[in-house]
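Question: does this match?
>
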Amino acid sequence: MDGSFWGSAEDRDVQPELCVLIAFHPDTSRIGERYRIACTDDPVIVGRHFPEFAASTTANVKGIGDQYVSREAFSLLREGRDWRIRRNPGRSRLRVNAQELPTEQLFSEEQLQQGLIVSLAQRIVLHLRLQLPMPAQQGAVAALASLKGLSPAMQQLRESTLLAAKSSADVLLIGPTGTGKERIARAIHTLSDRSSGPWVAVNMAATSVEIASASLFGARKGAYTGADSNRSGYFQQADGGTLFLDEVGDTPPTLQPMLLRALQEREIQVVGGKTERVDLRVVAAMEQDPDELRERFRPALRYRLGAQEIRLPALVERREDVALLAADFFGECATDDERPWDIGQSETSIRSWARLFEQLLAYDWPGNIRELQHTVAQISSCSTSELHVPSAVKARLTAVSVTSVMPGEHQPDTRVQEMPPTRLADVSDEDFIVAWRAAKYEVAAIARQLGVSRSAIYRRLESLRECRLAADVPLGEMLAALDACRGDLASTADRLAVSRRGLQTRLRASGVSSGYRSDTSKR
């Protein structure tokens, strides 16, 4: 297989299609509209009135319709395994992969498979991709409504999620940070026959080795110092429902044998008590490829967890979804601020927004959806009457540009690489502690701030005596602080220098009465 559609596609009686998606339009409601056509030797003309785009939720079709776009802005013609984009003289300005196209250029089939970013008249941004046709997904399931995206990768992910939900087998989700693994896991639970049962989420990388058995499998009163009452473990809490084991690839090696036995037998040993049977389904998630973790992650545990494996695509593999996600995030930020998302009507404003969306599509998003959402929030908070991109965001987005290389020419990669991500080892202990406090002791928040994985943060915390997690606070100290703060959860978290969310989880897992007050109850 050479990666080409041609030849093998005819054998399979499958004809590739060209998908053209509106990634930005002055009428932002049109972002995400598509035009799909089977590939032939006839040229595809793109301009003001053609092709006619349609949203996935309606059968209505219409052209781009912008008066600044020429009636025939450019043409796309297949020439064997190459594709020629030609801009007619005197027509709208045209940029392809962030580079001006004065007349015409030849692109390889592989480049079309990866996708091209096309900017028209500095007002319209399109995404072109050559792909195998995907069957229409009719009647979107409500539980999958949050899994947004029109790319083939997202359509396949939704299909895999539905198939996993119908099965009773355990599931292993594999994907880089920020791709939405917990959201997929929740969808599997919601769509399964266990949806009426409990949902219990556990971060295995943050599980303390010293109290792991009690945390996972429960303990009887008096089983260890501080065990003043019976305690139910995560496996017991999830009985009849779904247990989500997040960051399972970072499970401490000493915990893996006991976890493997519990998964194989569905039987747990309660600390200080008897063995108990549990009826639950396990959905696990990990960032790393398990094939690369054989020395740290037992293959037997991987195969037991991965009766079904689902790999989540990185955002760079589905660039056409970036525009739809970004538009949704901008809308959500505006709603949170009790205002509409308004890009303005001036020519300068529209061009600025179009350029921003072109940059969003060109960026590689190492932090995936989480990074995109955080970036949009930063831009939205700085933009009031007009678009304003913070200097740090601007530097990151403009540090990489997508540059086409002519097929058949062995040219060096001319792309300007993005700034290297932060190495946690380069952050001093003092700077880390300052960042830890600024992040309100939240692992996810400091990981986003420093641009590293959560597992890296957990490893750094283990080496710092000044920083700790709620799971590391002795029960007696926690209860004393809770009493001193008169049951106020936020004040207790500040007093202990731990995250409020982590403290709440620790209290619940320890069986502490829910009579404490949350920070919202004071309002």
